Structure formats: C-alpha cells, structure tokens
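agent: user wants the structure for HTH cro/C1-type domain-containing protein from Flavivirga jejuensis. delegating to structure tool.
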Amino acid sequence: MSKQKGKKSKDELNKANTLVNRYLCNFITNKFLQTFHDQDGNVISQNKYASSCGLSSSTLSKLKSSKGYDIPMATIYNICRYERYSLRDLFEEFEKKYGVDIPL
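agent: tool returned. relaying tokens verbatim.
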C-alpha cells in the first residue's frame, strides 16, 4: 500500500506534534516564566508561582525545558488564568510567531 498524496504518516504527525509542543512550551516560557511575578508585579519563587497557578513546580520545570513536553491544555489555561491573559490572545500571538503549519 502506498501513502496517499498529501497524507502524513503517523510518525510524521508525531514529530510535528512534538515540535509544536516544544515551540508552545518555549513561547509560554518566554512570555510568562522568565521571572515569576505575583498578580501585583512582585517577584516570587517558582514554587509560589506554581502554587498560585494550581500547578506543581515540576510541571513548570518541564515546561521550561528546552525540549518542552506534551503540555496539557489545562496547564496552559491555568497559567493564562493566573496571568489574566486570554487563551485566544495567547494562541493568536503564537500563530503570528510560528504560523499555522509548523514544518518539520
């Protein structure tokens, strides 16, 4: 059997998903996680920030990893909710930076 024209194999899709996750994690890290702040703008620890977001500190460490990880939507939502930032705005900025079809 040959692969249909324009169809990607499961392996190609998995590689693309991994790349999107890495870019998304790096984007969120650069936007929100370089220095941790409370909602009044004061610098706080990673542990306090994680707790305020309803996440574990290890989740933030994985997110900040240069390899990224398979970030759950709930994690993105918790960070955006804490930062008072809409998901729509976050993903619009992400698409402006990376486009809608991230090549391998």
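agent: one observation worth passing along. The mean pLDDT is 89.
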